[in-house]
């Protein structure tokens, strides 16, 4: 079978800070008064890097609550495995967990999931302030899980050649990058989320990421071992490391990348509805597919997970949604998180109404089997009902007349809280 190349649009690459800062300064000097108009993007932007010197965010982010030690987690109910969704990379993703829970009739979403940016090492170490809201959410309840995807190499989505990847993997295997992961481990312990689930080097059997395994599987496995050893050496840590390939063979059989039971705690799988025309039964039975994943994990005495799953190449596929939810109920992974944006999702994406209805009906009131869905409830883009007081969590101010939005890049808009809108009718003030 030919390697399966996936080209999902996700987590766009880093935009040069110097160029963005120049645009920001030029727009500010030329326009005078500006207006920030918040917008909800259809595709989540990449987590923002540190702002360059001289660019000051006009609205300071609220300080995160002081860390408190989470109480010991009670034993998990195997009949009710933890689930959640990837909803956004930053604080909005945390806020939307409660919104999605309401849409699901108060279902208990026990998993929060985000990604560290892979553009440069300083961000892989944990962008200052980026993890605070997630850590606070985790500490609020004892049985919650915080799942963090961690790149193994910088420039992770920049199309680095196999030859260069091979050299980077060998440098990692020699210990050259250990200190970056120690810093990340120390940051997570300081935030009092030492039990974070680390999805390290995800989808390593594909060709999308610089941290892929194919160019040198032996060096990749040695490098994985070094990262895990470095992070486990930090006092106070209780991390669990999740080995998560793509479903199927992809560029290399994922079993050839498995580093060994000593440094793997969970065996995950990212499973999207693809390629075009594939049935769910084929996704189960294909080489290195869903059944092979379950069997491999059982043979190694490891729990399974599904950090990423959802729709893709076959559109609004209600059958895939129903069968995948049944698969999760049958095999009871430690956790699963739906990727909830278009084309994969069901709540923040209006393109999949039939699959959305299935997802909601199956998980509605999951903590109490008696409620049934009667009112679909507001989706993220719906206005509040007239009889209800508006409770916006992501307010979108009206754009004033004679005002033109200026594109400053995802991370600048993140710190601004929206797009910058500039008025060009200053000449009318003299009339």
UniProtKB/TrEMBL annotation:
Q: Which InterPro entries match?
A: GH, GH26_dom
Where is the stretch described as Disordered?
A: 364-403
Spell out the Pro residues composition-biased ranges: 370-395
Q: Does the keyword Signal apply?
A: yes
Is the Hydrolase keyword given for this protein? yes
Q: Which SUPFAM superfamilies match?
A: (Trans)glycosidases
Indicate the residues that form the catalytic site: 203, 308
Query: What GO terms are given for molecular function?
Result: hydrolase activity, hydrolyzing O-glycosyl compounds
Signal peptide start-end: 1-30
Sorted alphabetically, the keyword list is:
Glycosidase, Hydrolase, Signal
Residue ranges occupied by any GH26 domain in the UniProt entry: 64-368
Family assignment from sequence similarity: Belongs to the glycosyl hydrolase 26 family.
Q: Tell me the protein's name.
A: GH26 domain-containing protein
